[in-house]
Each structure stands twice: as C-alpha cells, then as structure tokens.
Design a protein that fits this description.
With 470 residues, the chain is of the alpha/beta class. Helices cover 43% and strands 18% of the residues. The strands form 4 sheets. It has a 6-stranded mixed sheet with strand order 6-7-8-11-10-9, sandwiched between helices. It has a 6-stranded parallel sheet with strand order 14-13-12-15-16-17, sandwiched between helices. Strand 15, helix 12 and strand 16 form a beta-alpha-beta unit. Helix 2 crosses helix 3 and helix 9 packs across helix 13.
C-alpha cells in the first residue's frame, strides 16, 4: 500500500513539548486503515510529522497501531522543497483543481512538475526495496502518484499494480489543459487496474485516453491498450467500516455527549453537524449561506436551532486555502452577529483537527448532518454519519455532486448552489416524521453495512485475480 498521507504521525505536543501519536484527518486513511489492520502488510507513506523520525528503526519502519501492531508503516522522507513542489504545488494547485469542477483555476509550474517526478521516483525506489521475489502486489492511492505504476512496472514487470483514484476524473476537454497530460496518462496506464468511485469517472478516463493518446479503448472490456499494455478501468465505490464505535466505550461516549450538550447549551435544541477539511470543494460557505437563508425564511426556528461545524485546516501553505479560512471565519462571525442575542447564536464553528473518537459524539447528538460538497469523489463523512446512527435517528442532507449520492438515495439530495432549495431541505430534515427518518436511515445503514470497506477491497482483489487469468 502506498499513499501520501500516513495513517499515524508523531508530532510534538506544543503545551508540554512531548511527542504524541495522532491519526491525521484523511478520507483515505479512514477507509484503508481497517483493511491493513485486518490483512497486514506494509504501508508506505510520507513521514510528515515533526517527530516521526524518533519512532522508526534503521529502515524507517515501525509497527502500527502503536498499542497493537497489525502492519508495518514505512516512512519516506521529503525535503521542504520536495514537499512544496510535489504536494502543495503540482498535486494540490495543479491536479486537485483540474479534477474538481469548482471553478478554481489549476496552476502548473515546470519546477513543481520536476519535483513531482522526483518524489514519485523516490517512492518507487522505496516500494521496489520492499517487494517480495514472487508475485508482488502494489496498491497505489490517489493523484499524488500518477507516475508510480509505470516506474515500478519498468523494474518489476511481474508486479501486479492497482491505482485507486479517490477524486473525480474530469472530462477530456478539462484534462487537456494539463501540459503534462501524456506523461500522467502513460504513468497511470502502467498499472494493471485503475479504479474510480463511480462509473461516470471511469467513462471520463476512457474518453480522455481515447482522445489524448494513441491508444485503443475497448468499451466492452472497459480497458485501454497502450503500446501493447492493457489496463482495465473499473468503478469501486469506497466505504467505511460500517460499524463505527468509540474506542472509549459506550459509557464514556454518553458522558462526552452530555458534556458537549452542557458546554454548548444544546439541550432542547435542534442540532445539525458538518465535518470537513477546510477546502473549497466542500461547500462550507454555501452551507452557511443556506442556514442563514433557512433562518430568514423560517424565523420560528431561531433560538431553537444550532449548527456545529467541525473544520480541520488543511493545505494552509496554498493561498487559496489560506484565503478560504479567512472567508469562513468572517462569514461565521457575520452570521452569528446577525442573529445572536445574549443566550443564542446559530453557528458553533470549531476550527481544529478532530480524531475519529472526538467526532463520533457530534454525529451521535446531531439531528441531521450536512454534506454539501461542490464536487467530491465519494465523501466518507456521509457514510460515517450513517454508521454512527445505530439508533436509526437523524437525517442526511447530501450534495448530488458527491459519489455517495449514487448509493444513498434515501438521503435528502441537494444542489448546494441552489440556496432556496437548500434552505428548504434543512426544514425538511427537521420536520420529517420520525418513522420516515428511521426507514431512510435503516435503508442507508443496510447499504453501507453490506458494501463496507472490506467488500470494496475484496472486490478490487477479486477483479485483479480475474484479470490475471485473462
């Protein structure tokens, strides 16, 4: 397994100067960690924690989870310049906006591209050093490593390589603006299997290969043949464990819920929740504007309603993200000032990183959850919320522009750009009869229980096994 984000990172706890181990905010980590715990193996990732080097052996490895070693984490070290060019530059100012239809202009710099290639090669060398002599399997995660498949295949043609693309794939017209389109596609087609969340992204990828490369696309087999090498393209909707439960236990969870209710004066109030990285694709400002419009249209809910937004800052080195934090801060303050009195304000805006155990009480106490992404590959928050609602309470308001909306048809689906309808959907979530909420939640829980992350991984492995026999 290889990804940019590591499943555990060691950082210095600023108040006391001691190192601590944390789980970073990452949908990829949320999905893949349970699989490695169940199956074992080696996870290779960027060692980004400022205390990471203190906890590895001479081969840059350690066992994780820390208190119950189930698999090996191998850390790859990047210089500040490498991280700046590869991660913040090419991956997140170039590929990320290129693939998300949110009207943010991608930026492509030659220096970033050179650093991206250098880091991909560094990871390839680290992976090659770990491969067994016979039948190695490499599972690459996401847009940070488009070149890895070809790099590994050139050295180990016997390796079976899968790449899972966790974000949307754009149309050929959109992708064609990338100056390095051919190198990226060639790198990805070095893999035996390329997976996406939804069929539409598979179709876009096949169209892109067909239009921008000299290749043969087989629409019956859903494959691309390039220079004699065949790569299969499939949809594998990712999910969560399906059974979210606090590591602290039910009693501690109940106590934490009561503590939060007292701290934020939530008793007797209708509570909504949003859980996001601060990212322009997540529709956080649209969400706040919709809640504002809801309170304007339905003033009877003033002082009876509170929305809690958990917001994890991310990619703050990038100007667009830095500016967005300021925009959301200002909007939350402005809307709270608009409505607040001595006893109530509509928004509780908590801006920091939250662990999975810290998030669960918010899911449990929330009467509804809003996922208002402007464009998203899947969005696991929607599925985490459902998994947490074992009592079948609550409602999910879900953007139609998420991959999750294809599966979760019992959610209240919204267009986050359509403010009036969004506001009305909040009212619908609140006023929906309990029996209907229960039925919808039951249906959605059945979907994520049956199609959990283990089934997702098994489907990919089964597909690879079948392809090797062709």
């Amino acid at each position: 397994m290889v990804s940019n984000r590591e499943p555990y990172m060691h950082v210095i706890d600023e108040p006391n100067g001691r190192p601590k181990c944390i789980r970073p905010a990452s949908g990829v980590v949320t999905a893949l960690h349970p699989i490695l715990c169940a199956c074992g193996g080696t996870w290779i990732a960027h060692g980004s924690g400022n205390a990471d080097r203190k906890f590895v052996n001479s081969k840059d490895k350690l066992g994780v989870p820390p208190d119950d070693n189930r698999y090996i984490l191998k850390r790859v070290w990047l210089t500040k310049e490498e991280e700046e060019g590869y991660y913040y530059g090419f991956a997140n100012e170039g590929i990320w906006p290129l693939c998300h239809n949110t009207h943010t202009r991608p930026i492509f710099r030659e220096s970033d591209w050179q650093m991206y290639k250098k880091v991909n090669m560094k990871f390839a060398e680290s992976i090659l050093a770990e491969l067994p002599a016979k039948s190695p399997f490499v599972f690459i995660q996401d847009y940070h490593f488009t070149l890895l498949g070809k790099m590994i295949k050139e050295k180990r043609p016997d390796a079976t390589i899968a790449l899972f693309w966790h974000i949307p794939w754009p149309t050929p017209e959109s992708f064609s603006i990338c100056p390095y389109q051919e190198e990226i596609l060639d790198g990805m087609l070095g893999c035996d299997l390329v997976g996406f969340h939804v069929q539409n992204h598979c179709n876009n990828f096949l169209d892109t290969a067909n239009r921008l490369l000299e290749s043969r696309v087989d629409t019956e087999k859903f494959s691309v043949v390039r220079l004699g090498k065949e790569t299969f393209v499939r949809a594998f909707p990712i999910s969560v464990d399906g059974h979210i439960s606090s590591g602290a236990g039910e009693k501690a969870l109940a106590e934490e819920i009561e503590r939060l209710k007292k701290e934020y004066e939530l008793e007797g109030k209708i509570v909504g929740v949003g859980v996001d990285r601060i990212d322009y694709t997540k529709g956080i400002t649209e969400r706040m504007l919709a809640i504002d419009r809801f309170l304007e249209k339905y003033p009877e809910y003033r002082k009876k309603f509170v929305f809690i937004q958990l917001a994890a800052p991310s990619r703050t080195h990038i100007k667009r993200y830095h500016d967005l934090i300021g925009e959301i801060d200002e909007l939350a303050e402005k809307k709270n000032w608009k409505y607040r009195d001595e006893t109530w304000k509509p928004f509780i805006y908590l801006k920091r990183h939250f662990s999975a155990d810290e998030i669960e009480p918010y899911y449990q106490l929330a009467d509804f959850c809003i996922v208002s992404s402007l464009h998203d590959g899947m969005n696991l928050v929607a599925k985490e919320y459902i998994a947490a609602k074992s009592d079948l309470s609550g409602a999910l308001i879900l953007s139609q522009f998420t991959g999750a909306s294809r599966e979760l048809s019992d959610a209240i689906l919204i267009n986050p750009y359509y403010l009036e309808d969004f506001a009305d959907s909040i009212k619908l979530a609140i006023e929906m009869p309990d029996a209907e909420k229960k039925k919808r939640m039951e249906n959605m829980r059945r979907i994520i229980t049956e199609n959990n992350v283990y089934r997702w991984a098994a489907n990919i492995i089964t597909e690879l096994t079948a392809l090797k026999k062709i």
